[in-house]
Each structure stands twice: as C-alpha cells, then as structure tokens.
Design goal:
mainly beta; 4-stranded antiparallel β-sheet; 1 helix
Length: about 425
C-alpha cells in the first residue's frame, strides 16, 4: 500500500426421486439462476439471547467467554428454506461486563481469524454483517468475552436457483443524502436540527446521489449519529410498513458519534423512514443500490483478514504501524484474497484500534476525489468496527483516509462482480 498525505432454492429436481418431488415440482418448474442476487426483507428480530429468541436448545442468557452459538436462518423470517447463500444481519452486543469482540461465520468451517463486532463494557454496540450460511443453513457466532447478543435480519443473497430472482447491486460514488445538522435531505419544510425523541423522518432516496428515480428496490447507506443528548437507538425501515421492533444503531452521549451500515427496501414512494428513540443528529451517506436487470452479483466468503497495519498485512512493503493524521492508505484488493480481477466492489468489515484520538475513517475508490464522507467514527482507546461496501478504484485499489492516526484492520466478507443477466 502506498501512503500519501491528503489536504483535508437449491437446484430442485435431480436429487428428488421420492414422494417429495411432487411437493417441489411447481416451484422447480419456475426456477431461474439467481446466484448472488439480493432480496430485501422487512427487518425482523431473529436473535435475542436475553429472552432466548433464536437460541434453540439453549436457555436465555449471555454468551460466555469463548462460547459459540448456532443461529438457524434457513426458513426463518423470510429467508427461504433452500436457495439462500448468505444473510444480512444487524448484530448488537449489549450488557457486556468487559470489552471484547464477536465473530460471525458459516457453521461447519473453522472459526476464521477475523472479527465482526467490537464492543466495550456496558455500551450497546451494533454492526451489520453479511455472513455465508453454513451447515444446515446455520450461522455460528463466537464471543471472545461475555455479552448478550441481538440479531435482526434485513435480507439475503441467493445461491443457485429460486422461483423468484433477486436484485443486482449498483455501486455509486459515496454521497451524503442526509445531514440534519445543515438540512441536507430534509423535506416538507422541516428545519435543520436534531431529530426529537420518537420522531420519524421520511427521507427521499431515489433520484438522488446516483440512485435512479425509478427501478431501485433497496439501498445501502452508512448512518452516523452525533450530538446525542441521551441514550437511544435508530430504526431504519420502508415507509410503507409500520415501524418494526428492531434497531440499526445504538448511541448515547458518551459515544454519540456512531456509524453503522444499513440496507433497506425502497417502497414505491421512494422514501425510507428513520425513527429515533432519543434526540440526536443523523447523517446518512449512500454507497449503492439494488435493482432488477444487469448489475453486480455477490459472492460471500468466510471472513478473511486482508489488512492489518499492526503486522503489515495488506500494506505494501510490509510496513508496520499506525496510519498518520490525514493520511491515505491504499489496499490492493482486486486479484488478491480470492477476489477476481473484474470485481467492482468488496464488502469489508473495517476496524480501528489503538487510535491516537477522536477521528473518522473514510473508504472510497482510489483514483477518485476524497468524497468528504465518513464510514467509521472512533475515539481514543475504544475499538470500533463498521461494515463497508467499498467500490474498487484505480489499479484495483480501495483507499482509506484516516483523520487521526490509528491502527486499521479490514476483513473481507465477499465481493461483487458484473453480471449482465
């Protein structure tokens, strides 16, 4: 990596020779290849260790240090019994007695050297994960230290065949669509300023930021909160549905600058709704959208570490050490780590650790101007992670800008390649 200063269903049929065949003929007859396409789901809670949701065969209660729990996802909350290759889950750690991390990975494979979420003592911490389904349609979750876990599903990527095709991804240049601090994105005469407790804000997400006025079916955005005056959470959902009992991002005055990636279905109105339980400023940056027709399809992988400045992984010349203030780091990703050379974007879980102070990380395609958006906000002494759909830029590189010096880690969760079907 060069560093430089910046100024500012399963294939149905052939295996079925029994009476079960008659039950599947109708769906199999309409099956089409849909591998890597995305189907958005209305958000639903599928895991809550506090009350036992999703922890079949286990009593309610936190995961213990070093414990692995299985979360069955095939056939749950809109995910099909067959044909799903990966699921999109918002996982929140809560009531942790000490700092730690979790790893979400496909059951049936060894636990990878990666992390999905880093949490601190007593702080509710969310992160979006896209995890490949493993043995029996299960996701495994490892906890390095004790914590309660909550999981909400918002969609799935198809594997092989299904009766209804999903949508293909279109990456865009990161663009700010909402900033309540200065009024960006506000409609219907709403004045700039923090959202009030229990307020629901409608946000236009079509015809702006590279998202077409017609055809987009789901959108991926990075949400950030700031200047919270109390502890609370955000819920992002399609405006044509009642607010679901889920959360996307948790905040409090001590750590109000929190970011999390959200993928949400776009209703016909072209508006998504944002609810907050406590007063807070909200910022949202678009990263891409899903639509029918040609686009990119997703291939999920077991998490793989592709960048670690602590030991030089992914850094040109194996230079070891933190980034500097206002520094750019290039990660060469196309053609490495199993990512094909024609990949258009990668899904990276980006983590900061040992930061020198309060700052942010921006991830963007190399060769493009610095977009002046943020993907991850951090403070000194707190490990923080966020999922990023990073568009690949010049020479197959993804660029990272760090406002303050920090160690950077990135784990690959999958990649997007072009598909003209």
């Amino acid at each position: 990596m060069n560093r430089s200063r910046l100024t500012a269903g399963v294939l149905l049929s052939v295996l079925l020779g029994t009476a079960a065949l008659s039950a599947t003929v109708s769906s199999a007859s309409a099956a089409v290849p849909v591998r890597g396409t995305f189907t958005p789901l209305d958000p639903a809670r599928v895991l809550d260790t506090r009350d036992g949701t999703g922890v079949a065969g286990q009593h309610p209660g936190p995961l213990g240090e070093g414990q692995v729990t299985k979360l069955h996802m095939a056939g749950v909350a809109g995910v099909p019994e067959t044909g799903a290759g990966a699921v999109v889950l918002n996982i929140t750690a809560t009531a942790a007695p000490a700092a730690g991390y979790i790893v979400a990975f496909p059951c049936g494979v060894p636990r990878p050297n990666a992390s999905s979420l880093n949490f601190a003592k007593g702080v509710d911490t969310p992160n979006l994960v896209t995890v490949k389904l493993g043995t029996n349609g299960d996701v495994c979750i490892f906890a390095a230290n004790e914590t309660q876990l909550i999981g909400d599903v918002s969609g799935f990527y198809a594997d092989d065949f299904a009766s209804v095709p999903g949508y293909r991804y279109h990456e865009v240049e990161p663009t700010r669509l909402l900033d309540t601090r200065d009024g960006t994105g506000l409609v219907n005469g709403r004045a700039p300023g923090a959202l009030a407790a229990n307020e629901v804000l409608a946000l236009d997400v079509t015809g702006v930021g590279g998202v077409p006025a017609d055809g987009a079916r789901a959108i991926t955005m990075n949400f950030t909160t700031a200047d919270a005056t109390g502890a609370g959470y955000l819920t992002v959902f399609p405006c044509d549905r009642p607010r679901p009992g889920v959360s996307n991002l948790n905040f409090d005055p001590a750590v109000s600058a929190v970011a999390n990636l959200v993928t949400v279905r776009i209703p016909e109105s072209g508006q998504i709704c944002i609810y907050t339980s406590a007063p807070v400023q909200v910022i949202a940056d678009v990263q891409g959208y899903f639509a029918p027709g040609p686009g990119s399809v997703f291939t999920s992988v077991s998490p793989l570490r592709v960048l670690d400045t602590r030991d030089g992984t992914g850094v040109a010349g194996s230079k070891v050490g933190p980034t500097g203030k206002a520094e750019q780091l290039r990660l060469h990703i196309a053609g490495t780590g199993g990512v094909p050379t024609d990949a258009r974007a990668v899904l990276l879980n980006v983590t900061v650790t040992a930061a020198n102070g309060t700052g942010f990380v921006s991830v963007y395609p190399c060769g493009q101007p610095f977009p002046k958006i943020s993907n991850l906000n951090f403070v000194r002494g707190v490990d923080r992670a966020n999922l990023v759909k990073a568009k690949i830029g010049a020479d197959g590189d993804v660029c990272f800008f760090t406002a303050v010096g920090t160690q950077l880690i990135a784990d690959l969760e999958g990649y997007f390649t072009p598909n003209a079907a």
